[in-house]
Amino acid sequence: MKIKPARRIRGRVRLPGDKSISHRAAIIASLATGTSRISNFSPSEDCAATLSCLEKLGVSIIRSGHNLQVSCEQGLSAPRETLDCGNSGSTIRMLAGVLAGQDFSSTLTGDGSLLSRPMSRIIEPLEMMGAEVKSQDGKPPLTVSGANPLKPIRYELPVASAQVKSCVLLAGLYSEGQTQVIESLGATRDHTERMLEWFGVPLERSTIEKNGSTTISITGSPVLAGRDIAIPGDISSAAFLIAAAALLPDSALEVEDIGINPTRTAFLSLLRSLGLAVEINQKRDECNEAIGHVRVKGNLPDNQRNDTSNQVRGRVIAQLIDELPLLAVVGTQLQQGIEIRDAGELRHKESDRISSTVKNLRAMGAEVEEFADGLAVAGPTSLRGARIDSYGDHRIAMAFAVAALLAHGDSEVVGTDCVGVSFPEFFNVLESVAQR
What we know:
The strands form six sheets. A five-stranded mixed sheet has the order 16-17-15-2-24. The chain has a four-stranded mixed sheet with strand order 4-5-3-14, covered by helices on one side. 29% of the residues lie in helices and 26% in strands. The longest helix is centred in the middle third of the chain and has 13 residues, at 235-247. By secondary structure, it is α/β, with parallel strands linked by helices. The protein has two domains: 2-16 and 232-435, Enolpyruvate transferase domain (UDP-n-acetylglucosamine1-carboxyvinyl-transferase, Chain), CATH 3.65.10; 19-230, Enolpyruvate transferase domain (UDP-n-acetylglucosamine1-carboxyvinyl-transferase, Chain).
């Protein structure tokens, strides 16, 4: 994909359904009694993989554009073939939690990228609960032999991961007693908890103020009732458009009906703290999720104090995990650059996102220092057009499409098909608002 620099971003857009919420809506609807109707379901390849796996488990899914009807009156059944999760870590980790509570065995696999990703962090708690999980040295394929009921456990997350938390909570639906998950390393996105409650599952939350750790408790064998669900627009997809508009002078962009769940808006808050003009309005709640409009104006600050430290680290990293490569691009335009630490988890995504980001920024002329757990970008930098490698990673491809809009000279992003994993229409939407 060849990308020319842009003068500004102008327009109003409404984006496809949130990928994270869509996964959870389909999975939890499959466990409910009755039919659930889901509107604005994500068109991403990741969510398509979830639907495919659910159908192989006996779930009835009727599609009409981006709307679904989901039902599974007889409960999940043993699949006749391997469940292919494609590139989706959300699919494999959350379904493993559900499958741990079934009375049959099933195998979960995926593409080359997914087969390289660590799964021991879900294998450990599931085996503590009584399921048997076979793997390839802690990596997929995973063969899950379930047990029902499972043993309730009290489990402290070894990493700040919404996928691991969700896996254990979903397995907790099948436990004989109360399962507890403790987040001591920072709050992660809470879509699973919100979706379970929307379907009638009672949860308990308690926070220790002294250290900020939160315990989420779920009691096994609840009754889930089918519900209608409207999926908000995907804020992680919107982040790329928002950043481009914020960094290009004379830009004005409005993103309508976007999810503004408090565990997902850290990126917007950080942009504001860096002096960029981003605001949220028309807030409301729908289907137990917060929704609103995001407005952005291009006004890159040029008067940051020399003693300002643009360092991003600690607990907030878990809430910025999808946007960190993009933040590195943003940092190239800031007076004090940006430093990202405590983000070693980035090395275990679709690509090693720390390495991928560093290599591409250097190709565009940025000064970057790489650390085991992050990177530091000097700024401000006049980026130059370059040949960029996506490394098969949708977040890297989209982050550097934004960088290409800021650069002097044309750029070429190699391997852009990977954006279909989360936002198939990304380049069309980007072109519709970019003015040259």
